[in-house]
UniProtKB/TrEMBL annotation:
Residues covered by the Nucleotidyl transferase domain: 19-282
InterPro entries: ADP-Glc_PPase, ADP_Glu_pyroP_CS, NTP_transferase_dom, Nucleotide-diphossugar_trans
Stated name of the protein: Glucose-1-phosphate adenylyltransferase
GO biological process terms, semicolon-separated: glycogen biosynthetic process
Entry similarity comment: Belongs to the bacterial/plant glucose-1-phosphate adenylyltransferase family.
Pfam families, A to Z: NTP_transferase
PROSITE patterns, per the entry: ADP_GLC_PYROPHOSPH_1, ADP_GLC_PYROPHOSPH_2
GO molecular function annotations of the record: ATP binding; glucose-1-phosphate adenylyltransferase activity
Broadest EC class assigned to this enzyme: transferase
Keywords on record: ATP-binding, Glycogen biosynthesis, Nucleotide-binding, Nucleotidyltransferase, Transferase
Amino acid sequence: MNKDVSPRFISNLTRNTLALIMAGGRGTRLKQLTQWRAKPAVPFGGKFRIIDFPLSNCINSGIRKIGVLTQYKSHSLNLHIQKGWSNLRGDFGEFVELLPAQQRIESGWYAGTADSIYQNLDIIRAHSPDYVLILAGDHIYKMDYGTMLAKHVENNADVTVGCIGMPIESASAFGVMGLKDDLRITQFDEKPKNPQSRPDNPDEALCSMGIYIFNTDLLFELLIRDADTKTSSHDFGKDIIPYAISKYSVFAYPFTESKSGIQAYWRDVGTIDAFWEANLELIGVTPELNLYDNVWPIWT
C-alpha cells in the first residue's frame, strides 16, 4: 500500500464500513467442545472466546458497526456478546448487533455463508455502508482491516479477499487461489483435492482467510443473483467468489506483518488438534500471538 495514505483517509473508510461476522457454524470437527455451543463461543487462551478476535480487530481498526450472524446453539454466544460487547456508543451510531436466522425472506434458515448475508440484505440496506466487510467468526489472529480497505480502494477493486500462505499438505481445507503479478485473482478453488502451489514456493498454496471486502452495490447484485440460482450451494468460496472473478475486479490481500512484511499469525482452530496446538503456543516464552499487547489489545 502507498505509505502516504493518511490515517484520516483510512478512518473515513472504516467509518463507512459495515462488518458482518458469520458465527452460526456448528463446528462439528471440534466434537464435544461444540456440543452445547457455537464454535465462535468456545473459550480460547483462558478468558477469551474465539469470536473476541475478529470483534477486537474491528474495534481496533475503527470499525464500530458490526453485525454477528448466529444460528447453531447460540445462547452462550449471545450472552457473551450482550455482557461483554455492549459498551459501544449507540448515540454515535456504534453497535455490535446480533443477527439470528429469522426467516426474513423465505421459510428456510441460513443455508450457507452467502445465504446468511442474503437474508440480512434489509439490515445492510438500512445502514447504507459504502463497503461491507465479511468475516469468519472462528479464526485466531490480529489484523488491521483499515489497511486492507485502503488497498481495496487503491486497487479500484470490486472485491478483495484476504489470503495467507499455507503448507500444501493442509491447503485442501481452504479456498486456494491463483494470482497475476498485480495480485488480481484469476482462479479460486474451494477445498480442492489437489491444491495449486505458489509459483514462488512449491511447498505452499495461497489460501483464503475467509475475509472479504465488497463494494455494497455489487454485493447486493451478487447475492440476489446467487439466491435465484437453483443449483448454487449459496457459499462464498464455492459460488460467489468464483463468479465474481469471472466478471469483476477481484484482488487478493496478503496478510503480513505491517512492519516486517513477513507472514502474520493466523490460526484456523477448527479441529481438536489445531485448537490444542494453538492454545499450547501461548505458553511459550515469547509466543507469536501476544495477548498482552497494549497497541492492539484483544477485548472480551
